[in-house]
Amino acid sequence: MLRFKGRVLLATVLVLGMALGIVQSQSDRAAILEVLSPGVEILRTGTDNWLPISVESVVGVGDIVRTDDTGTARVTFFADGVDTEVLPNSEYRIDAFQGDDTSFTLRVSVLFGQTRQRLQRVLDAASSYSIDTPGMTLAARGTQFAVRVEDTGRSAMLVSEGVVAADGASDETEVPAEFGIRAPEDGPLSDVVRASTFDELDSALDGCTVTVTTPDDVSINVRNAPNVDAELIGYANAADIGLFYGRTTSTGWYRIVFEDQYGWILSSSAQITDSCSMLREFDDDYVEDGSSVLPQSVTSGDAEATEEPAPDDASDEAAEPTPEATEEATEEAGSGS
Q1: 3-class DSSP string for the chain
Q2: Spatial distance between the Cα atoms of 67 and 35, rounded to a whole number of angstroms
Q3: Distance between CA atoms of 215 and 227, rounded to whole angstroms?
Q4: pTM of the full structure
Q5: Which among 295, 290, 136 has a CA at the least distance from the CA of 201?
Q6: Would you say 272 and 210 are in contact if contact means Cβ atoms under 8 Å apart?
Q7: Structural domains present in the chain
Q8: What integer is the mean pLDDT of 244-271?
C-alpha cells in the first residue's frame, strides 16, 4: 500500500513538472540563431562564459549574441519573416519574448554595433515589438529597418519599409521609409532626415566641410530663410563658415549654423567636399522656425557674427547688401578633414 502511494506521489510530481515546463515554454519563447559567417558567440543568461557557435543554436530571454569583426548571425523569431541580422562587431540581447504564433511580445536591445530588423507581418493590437538602444527606444508593427549603436552610445536608425516610432529621452516621433534619425545616449532625438545609409544620415546631420571665400574679404549676409527678402539675422565672416548643413533644391542657398541658430547664405558656385555623403535638401520656400534640432556638437566650423554694424534704416532696404557685406559668396571644396 505504501509502495502504491509512493508511485502515485511520484507520478503526481512528474505531471506537475511537465505542466510547469509547458507553462514556462508558453511564457518565454525561444528563437533560432543561425551563423551566417564565422565569429559568433553566445552568453547564456546567468552564466559568465561566452560559447562559440559554429552553425546554429537555440537562444532565449536574457541571452546575448556577440559577433567579432568577421561574424554575422541571424536570429529568427518566427519563420514568416520576423528576424534580425546581427552584423560584425555587434552585441544583441533578447530581453522579452512571450506569447504565441499570433500574438506576442518581443523586446530586444542593441548594445552596440549594427543590426537589420525584418518584420514582414503586420502586428495585431495585442502584439508589440520594440528595440532598446542607449539613445532611443524603437517600436515597429510591420517594417524593415536598420539600427546602429556607436561606442559612445549614440544611436541611429534607418527605415527602408514601413514606419517606425522613435522615443527619446524627452521627445518622440515617427520615421517613415527612406528616412532616418539619431540620438546621443539619454539625449534628444535629431531631426528626421532623408537617408538610405548611415553615412548619408551622419552627413545630413553633422554637415559637410567647405571653404568659403568672398571678394575683398567682405562679410556675408545671413538670413533666416533662403531668399533675399527674408529677415537678415546678421553678418558672417567667410573664414568662419566651415560647414554647410543643407541646401535648397534649386535656388543656390546653403544652410549654416550662425550664433546658435540656423541661417542661410546665397552662393552660385558652391562646391562641396568629396567626402560628403549627402547634404540635406530643403524646399526653396523653407523658413527657419526654431523647431529644427541643432547639431549635437556645435563647435569650430560654425559661423560667428562679425562686428559689422547693421544699417541704420530698419526698413526693407536694411536687408540689402552694403559696401561692407555681400549677398552672395563663393565656395571652394574643403579638405574634408
Answers
A1: CHHHHHHHHHHHHHHHHHHHHHHHHHHCCCEEEEEEECCEEEECCCCCCEEEECCEEEECCCCEEEECCCCEEEEEEECCCEEEEECCCCEEEEEEEEECCCCEEEEEEEEEEEEEEEECCCCCCCCEEEEECCCCEEEECCEEEEEEECCCCCEEEEEEECEEEEECCCCEEEEECCEEEEECCCCCCCCCEECCCHHHHHHHHHCEEEEEECHHHCEEEEECCCCCCCCEEEEECHHHCCEECEEECCCCEEEEEECCCEEEEEECCCCCCCCCCCCCEECCCCCCCCCCCCCCCCCCCCECECCCCCCCCCCHHHHCCCCCEECEEEEEECCCC
A2: 10
A3: 21
A4: 0.80
A5: 295
A6: yes
A7: 29-198 (2.60.120.1440), 207-333 (no CATH)
A8: 88
Neighbours of 258 (CB within 10 A): 24
**Comparison of pLDDT for 322 and 235, the residue scoring more:** 235
Contact between residue 230 and residue 264 where contact means Cβ atoms under 8 Å apart: yes
pLDDT confidence of residue 336: 38
pLDDT of amino acid 221: 93
- Residues 6 or more apart in contact with residue 256 via CB below 8 angstroms: 222, 236, 241, 243, 244, 245, 262, 263, 264, 265, 302, 303
Query: Per-residue pLDDT for 59 more than 90?
Result: yes
The residue with cell 522613435 is 166
Q: What is the mean pLDDT of the chain?
A: 83
The grid cell for 84 is 534580425
Identity of the residue numbered 336: G
From residue 158, alpha-carbon distances to 84, 132, 138 in Å are: 14, 15, 11
pLDDT at 11: 45
